[in-house]
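Dear U.,

For the methods section draft, I wanted the exact inputs and outputs in one place so we can describe them consistently. I've listed the two proteins in the order they'll appear in the manuscript figures. Please don't edit the token lines directly; just add comments below if something needs changing.

First protein:
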Amino acid sequence: MAPLSEHEQKILDQIEKSLTDQPPSGPVKTATPGEHARRVRFGAALSIVGFLLLIAFFVTQQVIVGVLAFGGMVVGIVVMAGAAGRYVTARNASQSSTRAKLARSFKGWEETLRDRYRRE
């Protein structure tokens, strides 16, 4: 790979400077733990409604009721799982920075490689 010319290096420096001067763009508002808990409760309620519709399906034998029951339970579980996953991710992100996680991960990987080559 050939080194950059002076002109290309200046352009690269300008791009880097403009990127560091700009405010970071990203989500303006993040969900609080209370919002995640509310979504989990909503998903649980939807799953319960779906289960009650399933019981109603067995009583009425109407296919549409069974389809609504299945859909309600699936959507409720997906909402609960998504909110719980986002809550755990948000909690972990607030406890330690991504850079620190990456450094710990790389250090563990590096130590594993060093141990492997020491044995050989």
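Second protein (the one for the lower panel):
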Amino acid sequence: MSELNITPSSTPSSGGLINNKTRLILVLAVMALSLGYLLYSALGNNGRYYLTVSEFFEDDSNIAGRPVRVVGTLAPGSHVIPQGTLDHSFALMEGESMLGAFYSGVLPDLFDNEHSEIVLEGQYQGGAFQAESVIVKCPSKYQAENSDEVTGEPV
């Protein structure tokens, strides 16, 4: 009887297949690109200017037509809504500075609260601010109009 000589006819070559190191590099690259895209899409709108009304008027020449955020409080008596529409015109104020604004849509519930800060996102065009969105910051505290009304006794 003769002995069988069994030898592998071929050995795996590293040229045709992707080895583990290359596969790891490709997976890490795809993950890094995905994370970069998620960060870019999540933080893209947060690069807008965020100004108070008085800061807005200090130098409004470079802001015209650009997306911007402006914060202030609603000027008393300035909120006007034409009958049967969702178009609003109002003014934001901070100190002595006032900014006229327009918005079309439903406003948040606390918009007319005198203690609320209002954040407008939009563009300054033609001497008025055209808001694309309105955000109302909840008032941090409510103060009584008369200090005599506050007794400190439980109700």
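Candidate sentences for the figure legend, describing the second protein: The chain has a mean pLDDT of 79. The chain has two helices and six strands.

Thanks,
Y.
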